[in-house]
Design brief:
Layout: H1 3-25, E1 36-43, E2 49-52, H2 54-65, E3 69-81, E4 86-98, E5 110-124, E6 127-143
Parallel strand pairs: 1-6
Antiparallel strand pairs: 1-2, 3-4, 4-5, 5-6
Length: about 150
């Protein structure tokens, strides 16, 4: 890749991540799977694969966020383009999420999280897509419903 192609790839990946946050926060669930490779892997901070498949991940996001008001921010990306087909990045992040009652699985009323997304990307069909995603948190402030035990 020449310098211009590398810079174009970096900008395309920045736009991909911006779409990811916007589509989640605006509840555009049907558009989300297109951002991921079909074999997307969601990896826990300790290296275990938690979930596989772009469709499955989009469904998981819908399950947890459909009733919530969420605000996601990706900041200060460190993007490394390995070649014309693969890249990786680390994004500083913050998410602020509030549920009308509570998260359907975790039971939280609201969270304020800060940390980093660690991702890899693959170019498929002429477009960059997220191939692996791992979220590590530096802090997670949790508010519990008043009736929480």
């Amino acid at each position: 890749m020449d310098r211009i192609e590398r810079l174009e790839a970096i900008e395309e990946i920045r736009n991909l991540k911006a779409r990811y946050f916007r589509l989640m926060d605006t509840k555009q669930w049907d558009a989300l799977p297109d951002l991921f490779t079909a074999d997307l892997r969601i990896v826990t901070p300790d290296g275990r694969v938690w979930l596989e498949g772009g469709d499955a991940y989009a469904a998981s996001l819908k399950f947890g966020l459909a009733e919530a008001v969420s605000r996601h921010q990706g900041l200060t990306a460190e993007i490394e383009v390995a070649d014309a087909e693969t890249a990786s990045a680390i994004w500083a992040m913050q998410d602020v999420i509030e549920w009308p009652d509570r998260h359907p699985r975790e039971g939280w009323k609201a969270i304020l999280g800060r940390g980093h997304y660690h991702e890899t990307y693959r170019r498929e069909g002429g477009r960059w897509r997220i191939a692996t995603l791992s979220l590590t948190r530096i802090s997670l402030d949790i508010s519990w419903p008043e009736d929480a035990e």
